[in-house]
Amino acid sequence: MKIFQYVPVVVMIYASSMLLSSLGFFEFNDEVNALYKTLKSNLLPAMLFLMLLQIDFTHFVKLGKKLLISYVLAVVSIAISFIIVVFLFHFPSDIRAAFGALAGSWMGGTANMIAVGSALGVSESSFSYALVVDSINYTLWVMFLLFLVPYAHFFNRFTKSEEQFMQIGEIGCACNMGVKRYWFFVLLSIIVALFVNTVASYFTVVSHTTTIVLFATLLGILGSLSRVKNINGSSEVANSMLYLIIALIGSKAAIENFSTLGTYIAAGFFILLVHALLMVLGAKIFKLDLFSIGVASLANIGGIASAPILAAAYDKSLVSIGILMAVMGYLLGTVGGLFVANILLHF
Hints:
15 helices, mainly alpha, 347 residues
């Protein structure tokens, strides 16, 4: 459907679930709350594990020096931008934690945002603000980067860079993945979820949720180094779990104060502005082309849904670079988001 080209699926699911909750369609009691907690604590590590199975470190290294510098520059500049802007806006602690979760999203994706928000105990209402900022600012950022494509040669002349378009191996597709592979990943992820929850009940790092996030991330990395990563389809199952988690969080969320929403959106734009200035400065210093820094930026902020689109706008053969950079964000997004959030919470 064309509407999904303009409104992300996760936003529609979240908004629909939140609307139904606001209209009183859902009842909350001790049993429902217990079920909510159980589902979320198991779906979260299962989803993270499957997301990380897609990482291929060998392909990432093959990107080349300038693309790797661009990617690192994007991650570091986003972290710095969040720290500077949130410090200037003096948000309350729960909103700062929510922006820490947003940092996880803008370094990786929505899955990382949920992981960081859950680990920090961000309330559903504060998470609502972060998701709205994510949706609005991200959409305009995509449009802006696509708008710049025809003017790449002017930028490259300014940074004295040479366009180094390259192509890496194709990223696997799980088209018609089949029932057996689907249920294999479901069963495998459930085992991982049970394992990390059991470990977290005996060994806790900061909190139970933080522990399951860290251990699921570790197991996902180990899985990406095994033969399991060669079985395509983990992304599709992980996305299904992501949609379920978004619906769960939305069912208990509500935007309590619309008057402050504009302030949060403005803060999001300032974060993007600082990020853009740092990226241009880095491009000038390291002589990076617009394609490299643009795709690196969008791979972090937009993720796998939009980075390939920008890459294709330069050349269709470059789609795999956008996908690979976005997939790497699944690994760095959670760790980076927690790092930024801890700095924000100590202001």
